[in-house]
């Protein structure tokens, strides 16, 4: 049942190339630069006339929403807000019939997300779901939606659901961008080709496993971890920290790298491992100066870098190489080593990786 892997989580991490393919298959014609999503076509006016898109979700799905915010605003030029469902539903939020709400949920049963959807509908918004579990409550409650095709996710820590959510959301953003004309036909073609290449690049990224295991053995007893990223990779830093917290019980925080100097830098000393997403494209120079700030305070730097990188290697204690990607899709690849890092650390600490304490796969109570 675990397909030869020790845990469901590891199996699911390794399934990502395949399930990402399953998720985009039939939804794009790369050569023609076409995104085919009937669930968007059927409600195209709603999307094109929307004042804004509000994304509601919890946990890892909320992180996928944050990545989507960057993609939607960058490519489709539509304003996006990303909300914790639990905050949104109790805030007396301003919702109108000109809003499109996208609810993201692996299980499709998360109580707060479901309640946020009901509230949005009551206020006349159009609600679109991105769910993994077919026929789930959220899939049924939304006006329309698209499934991620991740297959059953058994490990409590979400892995393949996250990357397939980003895949669906990127397709939606590209669909809207093509309808609005905010990206050219050739750009669209190039971006779809890039999406098509992601399974191969993730396959490549998974090869860091042994090296990540070695790094894990060095830092497994750390009391704290920091995760830093900028732009598209800020949400990846949040997700890396969440994975480590939930399965290894090590306190970890994700931060936008530039926020360090506004407080968290006080935490840095030789006991503090800092995972920095420092791939090329997107604020590379800025990230290098953030790394220097950490290094000069003796923090231990574990950097995720683009293959062949020399500049970060010269500064970091450890580098983990991943294939080069466009900035917009880099979260799909950069997440992989962070999933593996949390996995190996948790295993080395003797934690129950697939069923961490205090957590449930579906959070059906608020
Ligand atoms: C993290 C995790 C949780 C879920 C959250 C939302 O690994 O599993 O944070 O992401 O409970 O769940 P769904 O996506 O089912 O709504």
Automatic annotation (TrEMBL):
> What UniProt keywords apply to this chain's record, in alphabetical order?
Aminotransferase, Cytoplasm, Glutamine amidotransferase, Repeat, Transferase
E.C. number(s) listed in UniProt: 2.6.1.16
- Catalytic positions? 361 (for fru-6p isomerization activity)
Q: Where in the cell is it found?
A: Cytoplasm
The GO annotation for biological process reads: amino sugar biosynthetic process; carbohydrate metabolic process; fructose 6-phosphate metabolic process; protein N-linked glycosylation; UDP-N-acetylglucosamine metabolic process
Q: Which GO terms describe its molecular function?
A: carbohydrate derivative binding; glutamine-fructose-6-phosphate transaminase (isomerizing) activity
Q: Does the keyword Transferase apply?
A: yes
Q: Does the keyword Heme feature in the UniProt annotation?
A: no
- Which residue ranges does the record assign to the SIS domain? 43-182, 215-356
From what superkingdom does this record's organism come? Bacteria
The name on file for this protein is: Glutamine--fructose-6-phosphate aminotransferase [isomerizing]
Source gene?
Answer: glmS
Identify the segment of the full-length protein shown: 250 to 615 of 615
């Amino acid at each position: 049942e675990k397909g030869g892997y020790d845990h469901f989580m590891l199996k699911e991490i390794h399934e990502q190339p395949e399930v990402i393919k399953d998720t985009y298959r039939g939804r794009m014609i790369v050569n023609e630069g076409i995104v085919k999503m009937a669930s968007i076509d059927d409600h195209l006016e709603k999307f094109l006339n929307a004042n804004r898109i509000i994304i509601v979700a919890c946990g890892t799905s909320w992180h996928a929403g944050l990545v989507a915010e960057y993609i939607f605003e960058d490519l489709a030029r539509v304003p996006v807000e990303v909300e914790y469902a639990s905050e949104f539903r109790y805030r007396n939020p301003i919702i109108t019939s000109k809003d499109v709400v996208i609810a993201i949920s692996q299980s499709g049963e998360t109580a707060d997300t479901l309640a946020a959807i009901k509230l949005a509908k009551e206020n006349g918004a159009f609600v679109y779901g991105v769910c993994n579990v077919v026929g789930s409550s959220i899939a049924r409650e939304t006006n329309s939606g698209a499934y991620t095709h991740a297959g059953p996710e058994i490990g409590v820590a979400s892995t393949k659901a996250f990357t397939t959510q980003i895949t669906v959301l990127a397709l939606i953003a590209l669909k809207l961008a093509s309808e609005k004309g905010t990206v050219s036909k050739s750009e669209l073609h190039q971006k779809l080709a890039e999406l098509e290449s992601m399974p191969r690049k993730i396959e490549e990224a998974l090869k860091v496993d042994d090296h990540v295991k070695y790094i894990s053995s060095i830092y497994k007893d750390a009391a704290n971890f920091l995760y830093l990223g900028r732009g598209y990779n800020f949400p990846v830093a949040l997700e890396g920290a969440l994975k480590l917290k939930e399965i290894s019980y090590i306190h970890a925080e994700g931060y936008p790298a530039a926020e360090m100097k506004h407080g968290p830098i006080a935490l840095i000393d030789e006991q503090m491992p800092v995972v920095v997403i420092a791939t090329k494209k997107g604020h590379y120079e800025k990230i290098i100066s953030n790394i220097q700030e950490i290094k000069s305070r003796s923090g231990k730097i574990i950097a995720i870098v683009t293959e062949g990188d020399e500049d970060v290697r010269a500064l970091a204690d450890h580098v983990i190489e991943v294939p080069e990607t466009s900035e917009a899709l880099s979260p799909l690849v950069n997440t992989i080593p962070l999933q593996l890092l949390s996995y190996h650390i948790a295993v080395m600490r003797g934690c129950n990786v697939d069923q961490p304490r205090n957590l449930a796969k579906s959070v059906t109570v608020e």
